[in-house]
Amino acid sequence: MGTCRGALALILAVVEAGGALGAVPAARPRASRMMTGMAAGPNPAGLAVSPEPRIDGLIAPSLLVPRPTLTQAALALSGESEAGRALPGVARLSEAPRPENPDSKSAESGKDAAEAEFLHRAGLGAAAAAAVEVPDSPASDYLLGLADQTRRTFARHFPLFHREFPLTVAHSGRTDTDMINASHDVSPYGKSRMHHIVLLEKMPPGKSNERELAPTAFSADDLPSPLNRAVRRGLARILTFFHEYAHGVFHEIIPSISRGFILPEEDGIRINAETALNEGFAVMLELLLVDKMLSRPGDFGLGPEEIEDARSWKAQRLRDMRHARNHYTQGTFYFIHKIYKQEGEAGLLKFLEDLDTQRLYELATHDLPFRLLEGRPELFKAYLTNSGDQATRAAVDALADYLAGADAPEQDLDRLRDILKRVDVSALARLLNPLVKTSVTRCDPSLCARLIARIARLSQDTAKRLADACHLNI
């Protein structure tokens, strides 16, 4: 990225984060906040497609916000009976018989053979040595069942995206809140590596507390029901776990990065495009699952209370997504939902399989080229995929450099005008709005004026539409 472009992106990132110019938020660990219910693509159930957020501010990184979880316990996601839920193929590795050979190497070899035999008897075979490993704890059996239900749900309701992979699942009670959260982690280098999902909840999860109420990660205490309504822990666990498993699916679908590639560090400001699209994918599938639950509650064993819980979950997720304006909002509304709505599951899968993963890691969500792609599948497919159009990529980069202050000779203006016509005015408005806030400590009105003037040089009409969207007088 050019110096001008990088400087402007940094200013915008700090402004969006709610700080004064020159203030840098503290670094934070990588986290994932769940997002709720969007209908997209073909919609046979006739569910309303959620409107996009109003353009009233830039998407800001969520700093130090806990990562939400997807969970639901009491619901039979696969629509099977209680007896059919016990997953023979998802087993604690400690349950496999161990040879009594004192030689450790021989013992490990015997253990591997025993595990393979166990999985074979379970009907999963070697591929499911992507089996689930759960540390022994009071919640072990419950977590095994949750992992199994999630896999069955993907296989039945999202077969195009269904992937199995090695997985460890654990519970941690180290939290100060009553809500349920979770995390997913995997090495970005290569496929079929061990994935790790940790369910974060004060109490050990179990059937005995599935019907207890807990606030969602998106509830708003100052708003009326359903936006402040607590939901049953069983449903919260299912949706949370499903969301985290979707992160694993995303990793298994997109192309791998080379071992020689060094990942740029993320912090409170720099969040890469891979993270945004990963969260967008997980949120999309989470919301689609909620829509499936609401359209066919009998298939999921939902009673009246669980139906209301699912509705509340979706309403709270959508409200949070519209107001948080972070990389979850960005990845879901402006990228994943756009391609899904236009091309359905098959088109989304093709897009993910063609992603230039290294480019995603190199590109930050506050870099101007990424912002210019928002909401335009024809642009972000050209820019972010291996089969994308090189000329379009170069034009987007040139426009970003120009808007950031780089010189543009007259002979280059036609190319910039052409690419500007393809950029969503809403994306430009989200770029400019934080710069016109009234607080002088949070914005630079002169910077906004310079950006408008540069856009006007290319298109007076676009500049006028942008000013109207940002409520400016020019």
Order of helices and strands: HHEHEEEEEHHHHHHHHHHHH
- Compute the CA-based radius of gyration: 24 Å
State the helicity in percent bands.
40-55%
Q: Bin the strand percentage.
A: under 5%
Structural class, by secondary structure, is mainly alpha
Anisotropy-based shape = globular
Q: Report, as a whole number of angstroms, the end-to-end distance.
A: 30 Å
Provide the residue-averaged pLDDT: 76
Keywords:
4-stranded mixed beta sheet, 5% strand, two-stranded antiparallel ribbon, single chain, globular, 474 residues, 6 strands, 47% helix
Protein model, in words:
- The chain folds into 2 domains: 1-30 and 375-474, no CATH class; 32-83 and 143-364, no CATH class.
- The protein is 47% helix and 5% strand.
- The chain is built from 15 helices and 6 strands.
- The protein has helices at residues 3-16, 104-121, 140-157, 233-253, 273-295, 304-324, 327-353, 357-362, 368-373, 377-384, 390-403, 410-422, 425-432, 445-458, 460-469, and strands at 132-133, 167-172, 181-185, 195-200, 213-214, 231-232.
- The strands form 2 sheets. A 4-stranded mixed sheet has the order 1-2-4-3, with helices on one face.
- β1, α3 and β2 form a beta-alpha-beta unit.
- α3 crosses α4 (233-253) and α11 crosses α12 (410-422).
